[in-house]
């Protein structure tokens, strides 16, 4: 007599169980995840300026997310750190151009470790949501935004901490030369980063739910991708034109350049002379275009007075200034009437470049390098804008262009055009120049304002509100030009909502991850209790 055992429901009717199955419990082996993550880091560098192959961002993020699925906490830290190490060591190699490998390895290493730490919450999110049905709303509609806010929150935190952070490398910035950049005028760069990860994470969830056997699951990724492509730049209102003369003096402005006092002003003045006699509303010189403090040096002040008289326009220049015991990196609007002069001090001096935080500690580690930085710049607190007649000119001094708050404050204060002053002399022949220029272009798109980006040694550009280049002077070239740039009024949603979105990303990341963890814990406890009272239950 044959005895027939009961057949499990999953075996008897697999077609009924399939819609309820959880996501595939696959993951790469650790060695494969490490290799994939390293490759993803390299792809992200290629997606960024100066190469700028923007579609590779989507490949990079997708591969990076796959590498994190199924990892332990330590494994996630390892895999994420490998991504960060490959990306930052290639992307920031210019940091060691003049000071050697120690600053480069220190910065890239710190960023890599922070990036790796930020990978752990992403792995936990995948682990804690794995029990939900693969083709259900949680996996397809909730998990991708959760992963996106966790990735973007990592960008926000790394852009603010430690020592004011280093928001140099963000996913949204890789899109400056692609068709998606206009989205930044609505969402800010942070919002664009988030939407990129939503697309990538949605693709990952679709594959985990069955891939080509479940085409409906591709709908979220396709929908967001189409939205990114068709969104136009937010329109701002034309408000006339503004003639800006801008001068790239190509003087000896590097930290180690051989120069005598006054050489930099002489180089800038010589390059400016061809503009004399031509109508302009403003003359702009780069960061470090004056090598003395005109507020306390009568000779420097007289030299600038001569330039203003000859140009027939106020001069926006930059120099180190001293007020009391404080030293500032200052942009001054130098006018014929001293009562009309205005200034703005750099908000975020570069740590280990313009000041040394915790100097006593770092002198114990690298005293020779720290000893090179004698001047300690004080952060500025005044608004990043000057007014030329009734026109507001927004400002950002060198690396301040990478800090959202500086740009947004200038726009909200009434900037109708931006002038970014920078000194790239210490990074001649590196990618730093073009990476920073990409930020200038994205700021034009984000604020829908024209930008005049003027450098000591290049590359200087005039950028239209849509991010296209109107005029340019290449590297290591002395030159000057006058451009009639469009003025714009009205604020983009990125400027208005950017600070709120940034805060919301952090709150959403913390709240959503906490909720996922609590839910996972509750389900685990419930399953444990169920098994203890029903020993025959299959998990």
Structure description:
This protein is an alpha/beta fold and 539 residues long. 46% of the residues lie in helices and 15% in strands. The chain contains 16 helices and twelve strands. The protein has a six-stranded mixed β-sheet. The chain has a six-stranded mixed β-sheet with strand order 6-7-8-9-10-11, covered by helices on one side. Helix 6 packs antiparallel against helix 7, helix 6 (101-128) crosses helix 16 and helix 8 runs antiparallel to helix 9. The longest helix is centred in the C-terminal third of the chain and has 41 residues, at 493-533. The radius of gyration is 27 Å and the shape is elongated. Residues 1-19 have low confidence and may be disordered.
Q: Key features?
A:
16 helices, six-stranded mixed beta sheet, alpha/beta, disordered N terminus
Number of strands: 12
Encode the helix/strand succession as letters: HHHHHHHHHEHEHEEEHHEEHEHEEEEH
Q: Note the total helix count.
A: 16
Mean pLDDT: 91
- Sheet/helix structural class: alpha/beta
How large is the radius of gyration? 27 Å
End-to-end CA span? 32 Å
Question: Helical amount among residues, as a percent range?
Answer: 40-55%
Label the overall shape. elongated
Q: Which consecutive residue ranges, at least 5 long each, have pLDDT under 50? A: 1-19
Show the helix and strand layout.
Blueprint lengths: L8 H4 L1 H4 L12 H18 L8 H13 L4 H19 L9 H28 L8 H22 L25 H25 L10 H12 L6 E12 L14 H10 L9 E3 L13 H14 L3 E9 L2 E9 L7 E4 L13 H7 L1 H5 L13 E4 L2 E7 L6 H9 L2 E8 L9 H16 L3 E5 L4 E4 L5 E5 L5 E11 L3 H41 L6
Parallel strand pairs: 1-2, 2-3, 7-8, 8-9
Antiparallel strand pairs: 1-12, 3-4, 4-5, 6-7, 9-10, 10-11
Helix pairs in contact: 3-4, 3-5, 4-8, 5-6, 6-7, 6-16, 7-8, 7-16, 8-9, 8-15, 8-16, 14-16
